[in-house]
Every structure is written in C-alpha cells, then in structure tokens.
C-alpha cells in the first residue's frame, strides 16, 4: 500500500443491512435486522465512539467491519478492500469473548504466550505496552484475574502496527489508571500514525478528550451518524455554550431510547419483551400443583 495520508478513507460503509438467522429455521425475512441501512465513512486518524444501549447493533457492526460475518446487503470497505473477500492485514479486532476462551486460561507463562503470537517481532512496541498496561511477564494465564488477562489480550492485539482498531467493550475489566494510560496510547497512535479506531463502550467517564467523532445507535440504525466531536450544543437542544460531557449525552440518549421503546410498547407498535412480565396480564397460578406442572420437564 502507498504511503498513507490523513485524507485517506480508512472505513467506507454503504447501505449496510444485516439480519441474524432466526431460530427454528424461520425465513430470514421474518427477523428484525440487527443493522439497518448504515452508511458513513471515516478518514485516517479518526476515533469513532459508538454510543447505544445493549442490543443497539454496535457489536454486530464491529463484527461486520472485522469480516467475521458475510455481508447480506450493502458494502464495507477497509482501505479500499472488501473486508470479507480481501481481509486487510492491518486490521485488529478486540472483543470480550477472547478472555473467556478456555485456550487462554491454560497454565502458560505470559512471556511464552506473547512470544508464541509474534511478540519477539514487535519487541519495542510490546515492551511499551507491557509498561502501559502494567503486565508481569511471569504471570501464568490460568492464575490471573479477568482484568489481568484482558491486559495480556491488549498487549497481544496492539503490539503490531495496525491501521484500523475495532474495540468492543474490552476496557470493561481494566482499572481506571490502566484504562487512562491505554486511552492516551491509542489517541497518540491516531494522531501520530494516522491509525483509525472504532470503539464501542458503556463506560464514558474520562472520554471527553478521546474521540474525534461520536455516533448514536438505536435498533440497528444510526440516530446520529458519525459526527465530529465535540458536538455543537445547539444540536443537542441545549441553551448553553458549554459542551455537555459525553457521560451526560450518553445518559440522555439512552434514557430517550428507553422511553421511546416503552411508548411503542404501550401503543402496540412493539411487543413488550423487557421488564416484569406481570405487566402483560399473564395469569400466575395460585395453587401449587398447577404452578409446578408448568415447570415439569420430565416428560
């Protein structure tokens, strides 16, 4: 690839729609799309924060960007390449499922583990990350905490010179100091090397100076397309020149999302699926024989 410039488009998405296969062999058309008609682009050096509640489509979007799902409708290109057919070697995806894998909980010393995945080829960056993430090379993978195992994952994933980094909730296990140091490192990678980062998280403390763009997802679609940060207060309906914090913006967006969902449920546009089921008017048997018969799985 030619020498990159900060004007180069790193991520290009057009008319992307994706639906998970419904259970029971039902046709795909009967399911609600997890991602709906998403289109946007990012240039090198961008840091995009995906804001949205659980089930908003953030993880599915990152999976598609990482080439982990075959596209059904639309297009995703990473540095001009079709991400599924021509996976770019400068893309790194880090999600929460890695630390839960039984293979990384075996009795292997961290130094040996990192060397087995190429740590010796990236010694300078590896050592820098070991210091940032406060990792002990003598740790045994089976004997450390989830947070410490997460730090090892981050060293492993970040020690190469990646150009696009997809992060899905991987900072959730980190203590506040390590997370702060990691965010400084990532911001430096974006500003100096022109690396692009797309980050989905539910922890917004300490992020005000981190992203270059933010977005708001709801029900698989963008309510707010990726938009330069900080936002114009007038676009948020705030009568002030003071920019609200990311935490306060995310809290308002998620509160509005929940209120809209509840309104749709009450007015019959959406089936109620969350919260207490007695609100659905389903009778609960009062006699023991009938109640326990409902949970007799011996037949």
Automatic annotation (TrEMBL):
Listed InterPro entries: AAA+_ATPase, ABC_transporter-like_ATP-bd, P-loop_NTPase
Gene3D superfamilies listed in its UniProt record: P-loop containing nucleotide triphosphate hydrolases
Domain ABC transporter: 11-244
Superkingdom of the source species: Eukaryota
Record has Flavoprotein as a keyword: no
MF (Gene Ontology): ATP binding; ATP hydrolysis activity
PANTHER family for this protein: SKFA PEPTIDE EXPORT ATP-BINDING PROTEIN SKFE
Protein name in the entry: P-loop containing nucleoside triphosphate hydrolase protein
Source organism of the structure: Dendrothele bispora (strain CBS 962.96)
